[in-house]
Each structure stands twice: as C-alpha cells, then as structure tokens.
Amino acid sequence: MTTAVSRSLKRHPIALGVLLFLILFVLVFDWNWLRHPVERYISNKTERTFTLGHLDVDLGFPTVVRLQDVYFSNADWGRKEPMAKVGQVDFSVSLPSLFADKILIPRLAVTNADAVMEMDKEGRRNWRLSEPDDTEPGRVRIGSLAVSDTRLRFYQYAKNLEVAVDANTFDPKAADQAREGDAKPDNAAFTTRYAIRGKYNDAEFSGEAIAGDTLTFQESGTPFPLKGYLEAGTTRFDVDGQIADVVNLSAIDARMKIRGETLANLYPFLLLPLPASPPYALEGHLKLNGNLYTMDELRGKIGSSDVTGSGTYENREPRPLLTAKLSSALLNVTDLGPLIGVSKKHDGAAPPVSQSETKNRASAKAKDAETDKRVLPTQQFQPERFKAIDAAFDLDATKLEVPGKLPLDSLNVSLRLKDGVLKLEPFNVGMGDGALIARITLDASGEPMRADAVVDIKQVRLSRLLPASNKVAPSTGTLGGRISLRGTGSSVAELAAKADGQVSMAVSRGRVSNLIDAASGLNGGKVIALLAGGDEQITLRCGAALFDVKQGKGSSSLFVIDTEDTQVLGEGGFDLAAERINFTLAPEPKNPGFLSARTPLNIHGSFVSPQFDLEKKPLVARAVGAAALAVIAAPLAALIPFIETGPGEDTDCSKVWGKVPAARAGTTGGK
User: Fold this and answer.
1) 112-157 tens-digit pLDDT
2) Of 210, 280, 270, whose CA–CA distance to 240 is shortest?
3) pTM to 2 decimals?
4) β-pairing, 580-589 with 192-200?
5) Which ranges of 412-500 does DSSP label H, i.e. alpha helix?
6) 290: burial class by Cβ within 10 Å (0-12, 13-18, 19+)?
7) Cα–Cα distance, 459 to 462 (Å, whole number)
8) N or C, fewer C-beta in 10 Å, the chain?
C-alpha cells in the first residue's frame, strides 16, 4: 500500500507539493496574520473603528475564538465614548448555527472589560452592527456569560433606565475555568460578585449580588446560584436561590424577601399596579415555570396585620394576571385605609431620604393636614393602573382590630379585576354579631370612572352598638339597612359628591334603656327617678329612616324611632360634597311627665365635628311662662310650663317598615 502511494506521488509532484504546503501552513500559521484584514473588514462593514491586539482560533466542535486588547467605537448617535474596550474575550461558536437563522455562541467569557450598551427611543441598539437601524431581534444568541473585572453600563432611553454593573470574580480558580471554557463549570459555589446601581424614571436603585462563575444568558434553561439584594428608596428586595437566563428568565427557584414603605412603590419596577399600603415585610418561595410565577409559603406583615397565603403572576396577553389567596389571624382595619385613599400616620423616625423625596413628603404632609378636615378619602384613583393588569384576590381575616369601640369582627373579601373593571363581591364584614355585606363595582374602562355600591347591613345587635354601662340598662334588638349609591369621580370623595341613590335603616322589636329614652325627651323628672331607683328596659316598638340621595345631597323622607314611652320624629339631610349635616330630632313623649324641657334637638355642622344644640324657642317660651306664673300666681306655679302632657302617639310600625323593605329584611335575617 505504501509503495503504491509513493509511486502515485512520484507521478503527481504537484499534489505532493500541495500536501507538503498544507502541512507546513498548519504548523507555522499564525491567526494574527488575519488580524488586520479582520479589523479592516469589521470597520468598513460597521463604519466604526475596530482594532485588535491579538487573534487566535482553536478549530473544533465547538470552535473557540480568543481576542485580546479589543477596541470598538460607539454608534454615531450614541455616547461619545467607546462601545467596548476589552482586555480579553473568549467565545465559542456553534458551526452549524452559522447556516441557521440565529448564530449560537454557547459561551462567552470576558476579562477586564468596559462596555456601554445603549437603546434609543426608536429601538436602535448600539450593539447591532450589520444594520444599525434594524430594530428586530438580533441574529446572535448567547448561551452563557462569564465575567471578571468587568464594567457594564446600559441605557434604555425610552424607559428612562440607566444601569451600571461592576463584576469581579473573587475565586481565581473559577476565573481560570471561565477563560479555559470549561463545558461543565462548578456552579455550586459563589464565585463572582456584582455591584449594581442605576436609575429608573429618576428613582435611584442599587444593590449587590454574588453568583456562580457563569451566568446563563438566554434560552439555555440551565440555572445558576444567585444571592443578593436590590434597594430602591425605602424598598428592599432580597433573593437567595437559583435562576436561569438573565435576559429572558426561564426558571426561578429562590427564597425571596421584600420590604418597603408601601406596595404601590413597586409599580415602576414590576409593572404591577399594587395598592397603596402601610409599611410591609413579606417573604416566600418564588418559582418560575414558563410564563407563570408562583409564590408559596408567603408570610409577613402589612402594617401591624399578619398575612399568610400564596399567589401567582402569569405574564400573558393582553394583560398579565395576578392571583392571591391570603389569610390573616389579626387584621388591623386602619391598615386597609390606604386601599381607598385614607392616609395612615406612622410613629417613629423616618429613614434618610433624598432632597426631592423630602419635598414630596412635605407636600404630602400638607395634603394630609387638609385631608384631616374631611371624613371621605380624597386620594385620587389611577384608572390606567386598573387597565394594566387583571387580578383575582381573596382575603379572609379571622379577627379585626379596630379603632375606638367599633363592633367589627371579621372580614372576607373577594376582588376581581378584569378589563379595567374592579368588583368587590362579596365584601363581607362581621359587625356586631351580624354582617355588613357589600357589592361594589369600580369601572375604569371609560371616562369618567364610575362606581356602583350596594351595602346591606344584616342583623347587627343593638347591644354591640350601644356602650355598656352599669347605670344604663342594656339594649336588645337588631339593626338592618341598605345603602345603594352610584356615581362618577376619581376618588371616594368625588364619587360620593356625585352619588345618586338611597340610604335606609330599620330597627326591629327589642328593648332599650328607659333612662336613655327619658333623656332623649328631656324628661327631667323621669331621669331623676330612674337615677334614684335604677334603670330598666322598655319596649322598642320599631324604628326606620329613609334618605333619598341626589348628586350627593341626602334628604329624609322618613325618620322615626318609637318606644312604648316616646315617639321621636326627625327631618333634615346631609351634603356629601361639603361633608355637612343638618338634622332635627323632635321627641314626643306618650305619657304625662314632670320637669320636662322637651324641645327639638338640632344636629348640624361638619362630619368631622358635628354640633348638637337644643332648639331655643320652645325653651324660651317655657322659661317666660314659668317666670310669668311665678310673678302672677305663686312660686310653685312656675313649674307648670315644665309639666309634660304626653302628646306622642304609637307609630304604625307595619306601615313604616313597608317603606324600607330591604332595611327591614336586614333586621330579620331575610333576603
């Protein structure tokens, strides 16, 4: 065989020469011979300056290219500094991908680099080299990235985003691994430290992270360890676990902690229109599978309220979907105030803030001072956030902590947000051993924002509403009611100011304090007798109120409270826009009495500080009559004007209840 080959080569001396040349070429070839042609080609192709200090290629599967002392100028529309200055870059190339739609670089290792990446408002990217004006996805796909002593600055002008990252490998062995292109690096240990700082919509953030020697970049599905934190103002996010593909996240399995001043501050960063809240601290187990984020073992506090549960976030079209099922053993009602625009005041020293944030807080404090003069929340809703996401949210609170002595017991809320329409149905509050059951709709799909609310008060015990006292007999009976309002506006205050509907209340048969009844009729003689001999219960026959509401103004068409001794009639109304009330209660005792100063009681003024005044004319008339009789007749005759004749009559309770059927149903438990 050898002899045959030798004879063949002797007959073909040219073939022998070519073979010898190829062997010699491979032995002595220096890839740097192509360095200047490569520089000229790339510079001409990109119309930018490109230089190399050294070029080497290791042919194989995959082929590995090593470049040293790389300089690449920036795009003419970008910042006036090089796009990249790199001490050394090593990358592998999948040869079959050169003939595919996207070129695959399975591994990229960078050492001693300073890079600037920019994306302008039209979507152009300075790293797009062949066709700079093309805003379509690029043809190069990077599988994993290893960095050492590298600085990266990223600018996305359309989103007003700036990010700077400093990366350093603190394990020399890992750095050698990265340069050598180890196909299976050991990611079990943390080897690289990243310092992060940036600005998003003028909000500054910073943080640190440590990771394995290799970051998977996109479409790999291979996780790497990551531990770090990110801070933005008063918000801090901590993560400890594994993620895959930092450009387009494909997997997350990590413990997460997040705390901050209000959940609403997360909106610019996560694009989640979370509601305003008091300070919070939450933690849980975060996972990503496809487009679905899940948060299990969620626990923590929002304000002084404990929270446990789970949630999901699905990145879908046309809007993402957020779901959560939460429970609370003890929920502070004041923590719910910010959900509807009520500011909550906090004690303790505030953390250091920037000058701009100080000005914002001063402005907010001034607004809070003005808001203190009002009862109805004035904070504006943000309709665009209603349209940014769909949501399904359930909260079950076993026990409520409430200010004062409000008889609120428990809470069950089901929130659904879809297509810009938010529904709270049901919104159930345990109240006085009964319930407050609301069905509320906020429609932000058009302008102006519309609201429709129906609130049913069911079987609330009077004994829970009226304060207990050892000098006053307890009351029994149940209260029911219905509030049905609809309006337009951008806050609770505006919605109320333009509301139309009805407000009705009813009280069923029960027992009330005789002392309170006598005091309501200003029957002094009876009050003295009861204080001396002890209070007792009397029959509460019925009670009802009905207010018709038009453009925020309510006027009474019915108001009566009827006991076995007194009939109390009322008339007047309220103004939700001005938050003022003007109402008169006129007691009519049914039995004769002594030392009675019976006169109507006027309730007027603001919701925050209502005033209570006795109507003066009847009192003056009684006083003048008493003085005249004392002069004309005898001193004892002066008591005659204070004798009660008892003009009150029994109310037709069935007729009264017929005018407020929904409220009446709430006293009996009927639907």
Assistant:
1) 999 998 988 888 888 877 665 655 655 677 777 788 899 999 998 8
2) 210
3) 0.68
4) unpaired
5) 462-465, 492-497
6) exposed
7) 9
8) N
Closest of 334, 337, 333, 286 to residue 313, by C-alpha: 286
| Torsion on CA atoms 290, 292, 298, 304, rounded to nearest 10 | 140
Higher pLDDT, 531 or 365: 365
Amino acid at 629: L
What tokens appear for 613 in the block? Answer: 């005044």
For residue 295, give the nearest of 311, 274, 313, 314 by alpha carbon. Answer: 311
Distance between CA atoms of 487 and 466, rounded to whole angstroms? 32
Per residue in 488-526, pLDDT (tens digit) is: 998 888 999 999 999 999 988 777 655 455 445 444 434
In the 3-class helix/strand/coil scheme, how is 151-182 assigned residue by residue?
Answer: EEEEEEHHHCEEEEEEEEECCHHHHHHHHHCC
Tokens of 439: 């069905």
Residue reference for tokens 């108001």? 559
Of the candidates 308, 288, 290, 306, the residue with the CA atom closest to the CA atom of residue 298: 308
Instruction: Please state the domain extents for the chain.
Output: 448-668
End-to-end CA distance of the chain: 105
**Strands 140-156 and 103-119: what pairing?**
parallel
- DSSP per-residue letters across 532-564: HH---EEEEEEEEEEEEEETTEEEEEEEEEEES
Question: Computed from CA positions of residues 368, 370, 373, 378, in that sequence, does the dihedral angle turn out positive or negative?
Answer: negative
* Helices 2-11/13-28 angle, 10° precision: 100
- Hey, what are 631's tokens? 């002069």
- Residue 389's CB is within 10 A of a number of other CB atoms, namely 18
CA pair distance 42, 413, nearest whole angstrom: 63
- Exposure pattern of 526-546 as b/e (b: 16+ CB <10 Å)? bbebbeeeebeebebbbbbbb
Which residues, 6 or more positions from 335, have their beta carbon under 8 angstroms from its beta carbon?
A: 277, 278, 302, 303, 304, 305, 344
Q: Is 507 exposed, middle or buried (0-12, 13-18, 19+ CB in 10 A)?
A: buried
Identify which of 237, 192, 246, 252 has the alpha carbon closest to the alpha carbon of residue 217: 246
